[in-house]
């Protein structure tokens, strides 16, 4: 995932809605256009496992909603992304419009691909940090690891780095009593 | 970097000596054969920057030697690797033979490539942990970051994750008063 053009003109939301519907993920961050190819099987397996875990929890405790890509999040005219997963609490439900999300979800989850590692770890972390996302999870399917960034005041601190190898369990203050083992998140169907 | 063959027979040091001299890095870990293509420019720039920092330090404080790849480290008949950089203190100088290193260096440094990430972060970390290496640095040229694993009793603990972004400085108890900024390690000549 690299900027498709290093033009000095910045892309805006108006350009964004005219990008081709080619099955690839199109995003703009600070006016730069990012294009990502379709994810691989392990990426999608993890997205499903996490969605099932979050969905199961929210069914019992309807305190918010989870959404999976492709679902546009418009942070500003120059920042429009499609996170792999996002969670919006009832308190923030006002950011949901008929077409997309307009504002900061409580939680954003990105699942790394080799081509998106730097963007997910640097560019998007900074975007989510400056746009009031409360937690950002960076999920690494190659190392079966998850980095949790949590807002503390105006900035993200890395609250945890969890691995399946260490037998870690993922929890978050955003979802009281939610817990899921990393082994479960990274489990591939036999 | 993946095992070149999943044969049930294990490769040994004798096989290792017969691998072709093809400019690629050949290694065996637990009898599996790993082949890595030549590193890219940033990898080599980082290697050079780190080597320079070590050498300047060791010229003033003659407490050990630093070596850069290709230089074989024979941990056992089934474990023969070529770390990107290694440091051997005078106390451990007995592991240096005319041909190679036979035993555990004090410090091993691996610089990630896209294709070696999993091997460096998981397979080699476990190898170095079980073979009495005192410190293992995993250098990430994509994120300008360094993870420091340090032996505490029989196991590695991750003692630091440093980044150029945070303005971090690398130090180690193995080299008293050694210090180098990550900005300097990841600096690419303009």
Protein described:
2 copies of one chain form a homodimer. By secondary structure, the first copy, chain A, is α+β, with helices and mostly antiparallel strands. Chain A contains 4 helices and 13 strands. In chain A, the strands form 4 sheets. The first copy, chain A, has a 6-stranded mixed beta sheet, with helices on both faces. A 3-stranded mixed beta sheet of chain A has the order 5-4-7, with no helix packed on it. In chain A, strands 1-2 form a two-stranded antiparallel sheet. The longest helix of chain A has 20 residues. The two termini of chain A are 31 Å apart. The interface between A and B is small, with 9 and 9 residues.
Write the layout of secondary structure elements.
Two copies of one chain form a homodimer.
Chain A: H1 13-16, E1 25-29, E2 32-36, H2 41-60, E3 64-68, E4 73-76, E5 79-81, E6 85-89, E7 101-102, E8 107-111, H3 117-130, E9 135-140, E10 145-152, E11 155-163, E12 169-170, E13 180-181, H4 182-185
Parallel strand pairs in A: 4-7, 8-9
Antiparallel strand pairs in A: 1-2, 3-6, 4-5, 6-8, 9-10, 10-11, 12-13
SSE order of chain A, one letter for each helix or strand: HEEHEEEEEEHEEEEEH
Q: How would you classify the helix and strand content of chain A by structural class? A: alpha+beta
Please compute the radius of gyration of chain A using only Cα atoms: 16 Å
Show unreliable segments of chain A.
Answer: none
């Amino acid at each position: 995932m690299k900027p498709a053009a290093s033009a000095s003109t910045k892309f805006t939301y108006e350009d964004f809605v005219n990008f081709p519907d080619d099955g690839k993920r199109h995003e703009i961050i600070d006016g730069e256009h990012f294009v990502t190819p379709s994810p691989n099987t392990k990426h999608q397996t993890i997205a499903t496992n996490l969605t099932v875990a979050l969905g199961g929890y929210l069914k019992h405790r309807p305190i918010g909603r989870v959404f999976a890509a492709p679902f546009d999040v418009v942070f500003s005219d120059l920042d429009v992304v499609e996170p792999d997963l996002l969670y919006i609490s009832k308190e923030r439900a006002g950011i949901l419009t008929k077409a997309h999300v307009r504002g900061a979800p409580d939680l954003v989850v990105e699942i790394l691909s080799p081509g998106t590692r730097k963007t997910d770890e640097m560019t998007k972390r900074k975007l989510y940090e400056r746009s009031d996302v409360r937690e950002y999870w960076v999920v690494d399917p190659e190392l079966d690891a998850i980095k949790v960034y949590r807002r503390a005041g105006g900035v993200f601190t890395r609250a945890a780095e969890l691995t399946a190898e260490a037998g870690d369990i993922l929890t978050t203050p955003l979802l009281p009593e939610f817990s899921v083992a990393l082994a479960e998140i990274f489990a591939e169907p036999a």
